């Protein structure tokens, strides 16, 4: 069985029937003791279950999962298969992002109808968009010196600009020496975003932090080749990232 006890985010080990063979402590606290992944799927997500068995699946699936508090929360669910065993990762998109997205939409609607509120409402919307970008790059400690940073949405200039200061400061202050960027949740990569990301990688190198990248999709490999300078290492699976703990 894969070593998942040290992972702070909800992680499950399943077989081909999606029977749960192991759960990380965070998954156990969130979902309770369950034996079948289908038991935590809500009715609207049950039809997506079969997609998890597809070994060619490269993008996370948004699913509503039931917690042990009998509540439904939105997660980005990805799976990696090794033989007959799969590791399911559940990254919470959560109520916080939903509330912020709703607030942003409400502010945008007001901007279209109330001219005298234009400046103040625009400032509020921009601040909340920055919050969304910051939530798209959380720092998850895998060990004392290894951190995982899952990225979501668009890898663009805004994502890097709004997160680089926080990432650099927190990684340094917490004495991390290795950072693994998980691209599984990235849908679009822009040239400006990659230029900014390359500069961020170089900054980490100067700080003595070794960067790794995991979860590259086939559609992104062509673009990433133009930015390879030997500054970072690409990993093929999350299991390789977990191996950095040993």
Automatic annotation (TrEMBL):
What is this protein called in UniProt? STAS domain-containing protein
| Matches recorded under CDD domains | STAS_RsbR_RsbS_like
Which organism does this sequence originate in? Paenisporosarcina macmurdoensis
Pfam families the UniProt entry points to: STAS
**Which residue intervals define the domain STAS in the entry?**
136-219
Show the InterPro entries listed in the entry.
Bact_StressResp_Reg, STAS_dom, STAS_dom_sf
SUPFAM superfamilies cross-referenced by the UniProt entry: SpoIIaa-like
Q: Tell me where on the tree of life, at the top rank, the source sits.
A: Bacteria
């Amino acid at each position: 069985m894969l070593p998942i006890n040290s992972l702070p985010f909800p992680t499950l080990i399943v077989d081909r029937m999606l029977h749960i063979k192991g759960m990380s402590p965070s998954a156990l606290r969130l979902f309770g003791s369950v034996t079948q992944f289908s038991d935590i799927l809500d009715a609207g997500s049950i039809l997506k279950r079969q997609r998890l068995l597809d070994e060619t699946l490269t993008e996370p699936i948004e699913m509503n999962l039931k917690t042990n508090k009998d509540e439904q929360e939105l997660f980005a669910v990805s799976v990696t298969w090794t033989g007959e065993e799969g590791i399911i990762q559940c990254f919470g998109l959560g109520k916080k992002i939903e509330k912020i997205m709703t607030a942003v939409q409400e502010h945008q609607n007001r901007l279209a109808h109330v001219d005298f509120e234009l400046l103040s409402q625009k400032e509020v919307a921009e601040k909340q968009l920055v919050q969304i970008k910051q939530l798209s790059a959380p720092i998850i400690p895998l060990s004392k010196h290894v951190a995982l940073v899952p990225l979501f949405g668009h890898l663009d200039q805004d994502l890097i600009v709004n997160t680089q200061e926080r990432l650099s400061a927190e990684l340094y202050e917490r004495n991390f020496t290795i950072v693994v960027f998980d691209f599984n949740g990235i849908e679009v990569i822009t040239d400006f975003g990659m230029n900014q990301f390359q500069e961020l990688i170089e900054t980490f190198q100067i700080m003595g932090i070794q960067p790794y990248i995991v979860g590259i999709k086939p559609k992104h490999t062509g673009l990433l080749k133009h930015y390879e300078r030997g500054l970072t290492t690409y990993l093929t699976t999350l299991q390789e990232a977990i191996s950095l703990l040993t």
